[in-house]
Amino acid sequence: MPRAVRTARILWIFSFAAGLAVLLGSFVARDSNLQRLRGLVADMAAGSDAQSVGTAANIVFWGSIGALLLLTTVEAAVLAAVLGRRAWARWALILLLATHVPVLLLAAKFLVPSGAAGSYVVMLWGAGVLLAFAGLVLLFLPSAGAWLKRERSRG
Questions:
Q1: Which residues fall within 8 angstroms of residue 12, CB to CB, at 6 or more apart?
Q2: Is the whole-model pTM more than 0.90?
Q3: How far is Cα 10 from Cα 118, in angstroms, rounded to an integer?
Q4: Which of 66, 117, 137, 138 could form a disulfide with 4 if both were Cys (CB 3.0 to 4.6 A apart)?
Q5: 136-149, pLDDT tens digit by residue?
């Protein structure tokens, strides 16, 4: 395995770790996040009963976490395909990363707390996206492409 591919793997793993750290933090602070979301939903849907507001807040919170967790899992599976010398998988990573960014921006509206904690969440997510992008670029270097093509010609 060329150095570019090994480095890309490490960058992607750090990217996954940054994203999962935010999701874990959101899960640990779920009570305060849900309380904040209930206030946000109540402001948006004035006149709704408390049960509807609570249900909507739960759907938004768990849906955001679920969407980000699903994307991270699929990215990890596709990265494993790249490491298994499937050249098509690096193209799929482009689409997944392009999908990840808008989902992240949408989830940020619901998962980023106010204050200093919110800035740490944004920094971790930003670092995760930058690490993933850098890892993706490395997968398209000539040494990585040659490594992927060698396997296809053998097999």
A1: 75, 76, 79, 131, 132, 135
A2: no
A3: 26
A4: 138
A5: 999 999 999 999 88
Long-range contacts of 116-119 (CB under 8 A, 24+ apart): 117/29
Burial label, 129 (beta-carbon count in 10 A; 0-12, 13-18, 19+): middle
* Distances in whole angstroms, Cα of residue 136 to Cα of each of 20, 48, 74, 76, 117: 19, 45, 15, 12, 29
Q: Are 143 and 3 in contact (CB under 8 A)?
A: yes
Express each pLDDT in 99-144 by its tens digit: 999 999 988 888 887 777 778 888 999 999 999 999 999 999 999 9
